[in-house]
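Subgroup meeting minutes
Present: P.N., E.W., G.H.
Scribe: E.W.

1. P.N. recapped why we're keeping a running log of single-chain structure predictions: easier to compare across weeks, and new members can see raw inputs and outputs side by side.
2. G.H. added today's entry (344 aa).
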Amino acid sequence: MSQDQILSVSYFDQVIGPNIFYSSEPMEDVVGAPDLDRILEFVEEEGPFIFAARKYQTVNHLFYIDSKFARGGKELLMISYMIKTAFFKDGITDVFKYLGSKGPILEDFAEELKELNDLTSLLHIKKSFSEGYVLNYGDEKFKNTFLELFNKYFQKLIPKYRLETPIKNKKIIKKIFIVGAPKAGKKTLLKNIEFIQFLNIKINDLSVRILEVIIENLEILNYNEEKCEFGCKGFKSFDECITHAQGIILIFKLSDKNSILDTKNMFKIIEDKYLEKKIDPIPFLIIGNKFNIDEDNKKEYIHNIFEIEKLKEKGRRIRYFPIKILEEDQRVMKSLRWMIKNIL
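Output recorded in log:
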């Protein structure tokens, strides 16, 4: 099996902390995979949950096994199934539905693991990092039994239809672009969205769960000031970037008039391109990044500069949020809920 899909079983070792018991691929070699150690270290509630990384979407199942060797009498384990987001045509619906359908399979796998003799004792054997997976410490009978079980469930998780190599057809790629003036907080916003998503992986909120499967498609749109043109990673021209946009997040430094006006000019370039190409306009989320909680949000001024009311009257989906990105996580989530709702 290639790195396009990965199945991994990890556990919390009471001496060395989070550790891999066995994985279909060496996790240290998988670029863009989630940090399973970090997830296992901070999540304690049993059950399946979806988690997104930059290149992979995952469904995980956390569970406990009774053990006479463990402090507290229980071992903490996690099964993780990972698949590259590029396999899915629609980063919002297809991935979410697909991963959600795999939760019961992971639960069944966990129930069979609980019945394996010698599993808990193997977790407490003295280990050396040079020996690879913990499974390697088991005897041949145990290893064969485990691998037979592992491969059985891996086959159940793999899609019944044939997956192509990660999708290369650029016609179906969709992006949510982040656009704004220099030093307005674009990278900070992207990092904070990922951090909020990590902290909320166990919250059963639809917008949070959908956010988990669109993070892969968030991208900061580059701007060439000399040419007054934008560029993105997957396409050669600005026209192609705009054609494949699913939403635009505009961001500026609220205390800086030049930052506001520079972002407005970028907005106008994008707007003109939509009118020129006669594409149905996508939602625009406008964020005024406050560097002080008490800072005036300048709502009337921003609405006038971006002509928000006029655009709304024309049926455009556009909304302004003044947010201190580094601190106001709830307002960041509120603005993203608006964006998600208008994409769907």
